[in-house]
Structures are given as C-alpha cells and as structure tokens.
Amino acid sequence: MTVLFADVVRSMDIAAVLDVERLREIMTELVERSAAVVQRYGGGSVEYTGDGLMALFGAPVALEDHAFRACLAALAIQDEACGLATEVQRRDGVTLGLRVGLNSGRVIAGEFGSGSLGYAATGEPIGFAKRMESVAPPGGVMLSESTARLVENSTQLSEPEWVHIKGTDEPVRAQRLVAIGARESHLGRAEADLVGRHWEMGTLDALMDRALSGHGSVVNVVGPAGIGKSRVAREVAGAAARRGFEVFWTFCESHARDVPFGVLSQLLRVGSGVNNLDDEAARDGLRVFVPDIDPQDRLLLEDLLGIADPNVALPQIDPDARRRRLTAMINSVTLARSEPALYIVEDAHWIDAVSESMLADLVTVIPRTPSLVLITSRPEYDGELKQVHGAQAIALAPLDDSDTATLLAALLGSDPSVGALSEIMADRAAGNPFFAEEMVREFVQRGVLTGERGHYVCRTDVSELSVPATVQAAIEARIDRLSAPGRQTLYAASVIGARFESGLLTALGIGAMFDELLGAELIDQVGFTADAEFAFRHPLIRAVAYESQLKSDRAQWHRRLAAAIEESEPDSADENAAMIAEHLQAAGDLHAAYGWHMRAATWATNRDISAAWRSWERARRIADALPDYDPEQLSMRIAPRTMLCGIAWRVHVNIVGDQFEELRQLCNSAGDDASLAIGMAGLVIDHAYHARIRQAATLASEAWALAEGLEDPNLTVGVFLPLIYAMIECGEWHEVLRWSQQVIDLSGDDPSKGNIIFGSPLAVAHTARGMARYSMGRRGWRDDLRQGLSIGRSVDPLSYAAANSFTYFGGIPTGVLRPSDSVIREIEDALQIAERSGDDLAVANVRMALGVALAHRDTDAQRDRGQQLLAEVGDIFVRQEHNLAELPIIHVLLARERSRRGDGDDAIDLMRSAVDQQFRDGPWLLWNAAVTGVLVETLLEHRGPDGVAEAEAAIERLTGGADDGLAIREIWLLRLRTLVAHTQGDSETEVALRHRYHEMAQSLGYEGHLDWAEAMEQARA
Ligand SMILES: Nc1ncnc2c1ncn2[C@@H]1O[C@H](COP(=O)(O)OP(=O)(O)O)[C@@H](O)[C@H]1O
Ligand SMILES: [Mg+2]
C-alpha cells in the first residue's frame, strides 16, 4: 500500500494574520476537497491531522496500482490547494502552501483492525511518508524510493536527490513527482528493439528536418496488419518529441466508421489540449487555446469537439457554411502555430467519411507549417487522405530474412534449443513482426518455451509441434487459454472497441479481469485516471476476440452497451445516436436501431448532409430487411427513402433510377402522397440541375398537383421552392404565376410558413411572381421583387440569397433590371451573407448573379471580374454537377467578353453551341431570349451584312413559331430586328422598330432595355 501525507506549510504569517476561526474554515475546506480527491482515486481511510491529512491507497482494499493512484491523488490535491490558495491570497493576503509526501510499503493488517489508524500511529511506512512530506517543497510532491520504483514507468520524476530526515543519520533517496506519464507512450510496454526500417526512418527523419524549416508534409505509412505501421509511428513520435515536436495521436476504430466527426473531433480535442476534460473545463481550455475567434465560430467549434453547452443554441446556418467556417478557422489556427507539431492518425482505413473529407481539406495547409501529419493505413484504404496533393507514401514491406532473424533472436534469445523453432517461426511469419511476436507468446503460454523473455529455452521436439498457421490462429489459441472470467472481459471489451475504459465494462456488469489480460499481453493500459483506460495490444486481437464469440453472446454485449452509452451521457444522446444505432443493429434490435439511425440523421442534417444521408441509407437498409408481415415495415421503408430522395441532389447521388421508383410504389401502396411529393421535389431538383428541364417541369407539375390535392398548406408551401425552380428554368410563366400566387395566399402573413426544406418559401414566391409578371408584361413586378428581397432578408440568410440570385441573374441578362452601383452592392452584400451562413449552392448562385451583373457593366475592370467569377462558377457547376441549365448563359457571356477582345470567330462558335444547348429542351426556356440576343448582336457586329442570314435564323428560332405575346420575348424580337435592319442599312424600318422598342421598354419598365434603346439612339444620332 501507499501512504499519502499532506500538510500545510505553517509559515509565521499565516498564524499572525489569520484568526482561529478563519484558519479553521480554510483547513476544513482544504481537507474536504482533498478527501474528495482521495476518494475519487480509490484511496481508503482518510485521517485528519490538524494541519493536513493522511490517506492510504491499497488498504483496506487491495489495489494493484496503489502507488500510481496515490500519485494521481497527490497531484490533484495540489491542484485543489492551488485553487484555494489563490482565493486565500486574494481575501486574506497570505500565502498558503501544501507539501505532500508518499511512501509505499507493507503494513501489517492488524494495524487497521480498529478501523482508525490514529494520527499517532507510527507504523514505519506511515512515519516515512511524513518524513517525505517534510522534505517536499511547498506545492510539491516527494516520493520515497519505494514509491518511486513502483511508478517510474508511468510517471515523470525529477532526478533522485539525497535528503536528510529526522531519525536517521544517513541521507535517504527521494524523488519529486513532476507529472503523470504521457497517455500515449504505451507505458511499460516491453518491446524488442526496432529492426530494419532504415530507409523508412531515414525518410521520415528528413521530413522532420524539412518540417522544422517550415515545410511540413503529409506522410502515408501503408502496410498490412502487423507489419509495423504503429511501431514506425511510435518511433517517429519518439524522435519527433526529442526534436521538439509536440505529438498528437488519434485512433480510428473499425466499429466507429459510421460515426460522423468522431476522428476529427478527437484530433482537434487532442490538438487543442482539451481531451480528457469535462465539457465545461474543455470549453474554458478552448477559450485559452483560441482566444479571439468569432463567438459563433466558437460555438461551431465546441459542437464539433463534442463539448458544446447543451443550453446554448447552435447558430442556424447551413452545414456547408458550417464546414467552410470551421475549415477556415482551423486552418488559420494551424497556420498561426509556430512550434513544430506531429499529428498521427492511426488506421485511416477506419476513418469516418466526414472526418476524412474535412481532414483532407485541412491538411492542405500543412506544407506551409512546421508540422508533420503521419497517417497509417492498410493497403486496401484508398480514400481521400491517400490522395492528398503532394503527400508522401511509405509502403512497409515484410521484414527481410535477416531482420526477421534479428527480431526472433531478440524475442527468443540465443539458447541453442530455440534455434530450430526460430527457423520454423521465421518461415511462418513471412516477415510479419506481429505474427512472430504472437507465435512466441503462444509458445510461451503453451509451455513450449520456458524461461524469461529474451532467454527462452525449448524442451519440445519441434517436429511434433503444431505451429499456428496464421496470426489469427495464434491469437485464438491464446484467448482459449484464458480463464473464463478473463475471456469474458476480453470478449466484452472487444465489443466496445480497440480502446475501452474500465468504467464502461463495469456498466456492462463485468467484474473486469485486467491483470490476466495485461499479463497475457493482450491489452495495454493507456490511461491512468480513476477510470483506467485500456487498449487492445493490436487491432487484430480485438478482431479475433470479437469474431470468436458466439453471435448471440456478442449481441447481448451490444445491447447492453447501447443502453450503457445512452445512460451514461444522456445529454449527448443525439451526438451518440449513430454509435447507439450501430450497437443496436449488431444486437439485432432492428426497430430500435432504425429509430436511432433516423435520430442520428436528424442530428446530422444541421452538421453534414452526407452524414445525414448515410444514416438514412442505413435506416433504409434495415427497413428493407424487415419481414413483410411486420406492420411497420411499409412506413419504415418510406420514411428514410423520402429523405434520401428529397436530398439526394445535395450529395450528388443519382436517384433517377430505382430509388425513386421504389419510393413511388411504396407510397402508392401506402396511399402516402405527402412523402411522395417530398421525394418528388428532390427528383425535380435533380433533373433541373442536370439540365433535364422538360422532365423536371413535367414532374414538378405532377408533384404540385399531388401536394395541392392533399390540402395541407404546410406541405404545398414546403415543396414550392424546388418545384418553382424547374418551372422558372422552363419559362412556364403562367404556372409560375399561379403557383406563386397560391403560396402567397396560403402563407398569409407568415414569412416562415412551410419551412420544411427552406426558410421562407414566401420570399421566393414573391420573387417568382415578380419574374412571371415582368415576363408576361404585367404590372406589380417591381414591388414583388423588392418584397421578395426584404422578406428573405428578414427570415434567414439562405432565403435572402435565393431571392437575391433569382432576382438578379434572372433580371439582368434579360434586360429587365439594370446592373446599377447599388445593385452590385446589394449582391456583394448577399454574397457575404451566403458565405457566412449559406450552403455551397447558395454561394454559387449568388456568385453567378454577381458575375452576370458585372459582365453587364461598362468598365473593363468590372467586366474582367465578372468574367472571372462566371468562369469559376461555371467550373463549379460542371464539377459538382448542378445548375447545368445555367451553363449556356454563362458560356455566352464569357464568349461575348472574348469577342470584345477581338476573338470574334471563336466567340461566335462558342455562342452557337451554347445557344444550341439552350434550345435543346424547347423554345421557351428562361435564357433563350438572352442567349439569342448576344449571339445576334455579336454576329452583326463582327460579320456585318454577312451575319444577317444567320442572325435572322436565330431570331426565327426564338419565335418558336409561337405567337403567345410573351412580353419578354416580344421586346427581344423587336430589339434584334432593329439591329438587323440597321445592319442591312434599312433605316426606315430601323427607325420605326427602334421607336417601338423604346416605347415598349418604357411602358413595361424594363430598365436594361431602356438603357439599350437609348444607347442605340445615341449611336445613330
Ligand atoms: N521493425 C520492427 N522491429 C521490431 N518490432 C517490430 C517492428 N515492426 C513491428 N514490430 C512489432 O510488431 C508488432 C506489430 O506492429 P504494429 O506496428 O502494431 O503493426 P501495424 O500497426 O502495422 O499493424 C508490434 O509489437 C511491434 O512492436
Ligand atoms: Mg497499427
């Protein structure tokens, strides 16, 4: 057992300044806090000693790690004392200090018989602890030699000093406790020296050099299980630490693959030094780590780290914006860091998808920092982290024969009796060091090898020996040899994961047998707080332990674990939903698992759409596997599918195929039109984004009719945005007018009515009605557009972005609106808002609006910027496969800039194909007039009379043989015919047409056309 002795430094001024009453108050406080600490770390009886206290660890209950626990308690008591001292200093103006001494030894059981030791107890170990206390510096913890020896592997101690204590003449050895050993250093793990891996270590060393000079890199260390990836990482970590790098470890786990954000948040917690703190302390720590960030950004970061205050609402922003802002913030923190850091991400083949893609973004700044990122993975991993631009790759090959021989010699020793066995093992291991080690352990446990590690003797005839065929077989044999309770512990732990805390096993009702497992080198202890943390020595051991149990037993563990996780962190149930769902699914509780997947998806919708998508997908698969007679099967199959179809376009998943048809059939058999309408709305967007405008519009009409038929205003209004988008693109102005009118009526005064998909359908309804009205030559459109913008602005950033982009990229190229200074400012403003809070699509749309507006300005500088923006969004549209229907207008405007720069012929070619594209789905579409207009102008400008024939054909195509008197088309026809007449030198016709053009522009209030008409007149004057 270990004795802890703590005493207040009784300086003169304490006695002089404080009255008895106050002194007692302070002492009571100190003793109470310390007693709580002792209890927390499993200490036994606590004695009050007048000026301090004494506590025992390891008695009366035997604790194998009593010395270590006493160290933890000692440091924690000093922390408490420190806090109290600050208070006392402030209030009473005196300095309070505490000394702590520790000593370990055997105590005769009888001494505890009375239940109280009495301060006067003078057992030798107790007296010695008091002596240690007396030589400790104020604020310090002094360890006797016996205690130091027990904890030297798990703590950091000062150099030994020789101190004089009362009662002996000889000085005695003592060491000061500095800190608890680093959690990741695999304390006390006995390892053979590293063999081979010379060039690998050399390369990594060189990369460290480069990092130190400010040029960091990302390195992938790749190889099969057991080949030595983690070992290389540990070696690098050691070398890096010696060279001044701070080292941060993160571990991906096979069972957490579907738990979004897990790995990233772990890495960030470790990197910001707030790991292992409770949430509140972690938030404080984060405040110190990143002192000046935007308060909203701080909330996002806390949420990402899983340490958010549940009582504070998250900013209402789109997941895309959240990601943009988090990435920007983390990158700037990474870039600002001037000390070298090594980030290790272990076993990336198990990384969750969200962490993976965010991390791939984050590491792009590493080359500009003094940092290294080392990622280990198995060869089958081919994800984004492997493809990071400029990343190095180190593939670990099997050890060669001589390295294997060296390794085996180190493990077995050089007794001649092990020679033959060593050869067999070398052959079997095939250069896999882990297999070699496991075989050695297996033979030792079987009794084939006897003696000490590194000095074994083999008494068995090797020709009669069965040698494990695979590393799994070796592990299995070792597990079989455990006692039943030991095996039980290992099995339960394997269900928790590669790392597990003792507390969770207790919650599973396991009387955990860690000693046996530690002794068998199946697990290591990696965390030494009150709730000890362990890790499987290798992921394969966990995998074998997991696989080799009966499925039904395993299911039990999973079920209990799900309950334990839910119970232990009731505040984090949403955050843990994905994990709970996995366990329940593995337990075979399909209905419950389904519910948790759906819950996880809802949690993720505000954080990452693709994560939400994955959870719905998992829910869908569960539902599909349910038997037909299950009464809930149908509705369970519909719900996730509805969401999947509804959002598929946002994660670029093509649902045109079976997914949607299945949803339709299921909805039909359930009579569930509402779900069908929502799923359909998603499909409409998907069609529209892929420029299948006709199909989009047809389906939109069907969905609208369905929604109308349900007479549920929230639903009708709710599906409006995607449907109206298709109709606008298609130029179906009568329908646009009718539907938007309906939404305006159904919404009443509520700008947020029907906000299922989108904040303010009403805002867009006004914008859409405005567009329909101006296209059809009706009055009131200007007020409509204004109102759309102001309602959008009052509701949320996304609604504003939508109203803004519809208004301007619809209005400017068609000549309805003028790209005035104030309009440019307004769009710039909307862009900022969208970047802060909107999804990537909203940002792209507003950028397009800005590009379009700038492309219609007079100065070269503005048009250059417009051109650049349009080129960029065009690229994004193509790459991300959305807004493809907008490509023709973008290409035409870009080509016009080319022609202005004198590249007329190429420009015309580009325009022709863009116009063909634009007309592929019919003559009515939104952009038809504008693109035709640019082509005709350019033809006439560049070719003069030679361009007339083609210009006329283009104009004819725009009429589409129709005579519906659509104002927007009429005015373009007038304008273009005026230009043709001018080019032909037919001035009579020209003047007549020009007047009509001017008048029409005036009466309709089309600002752009008015400007153009006036410009024509000035040119002819
Ligand atoms: N080059 C080496 N020299 C000595 N021991 C090694 C070497 N490579 C791996 N080992 C040992 O083999 C075992 C498995 O290695 P590990 O790094 O965990 O494999 P991986 O991470 O690739 O699955 C570890 O105990 C490790 O110490
Ligand atoms: Mg490993």
Describe the structure.
The chain is an alpha/beta fold and 1021 residues long. 59% of the residues lie in helices and 9% in strands. It contains 44 helices and 18 strands. A hairpin with a 5-residue loop joins strand 17 and strand 18. Helix 32 packs antiparallel against helix 33. Bound molecules: adenosine-5'-diphosphate (ADP) and magnesium ion.
**Which residues form runs of ≥5 with pLDDT under 50?**
109-122, 182-188
Radius of gyration, in angstroms, nearest whole number: 37 Å
The helix count comes to: 44
Q: Give me the count of strands.
A: 18
The proportion of strand residues reads: 5-15%
Mean pLDDT: 89
Distance between the termini: 107 Å
**What structural class results from the helix and strand content?**
alpha/beta
- Oligomerization category of the chains in this entry: single chain
Morphology call:
elongated
- Give a quick account of the main beta sheet: strands, pairing sense, barrel closure: 8 strands, mixed
Ligand roster: adenosine-5'-diphosphate, magnesium ion
Helix proportion: 55-70%
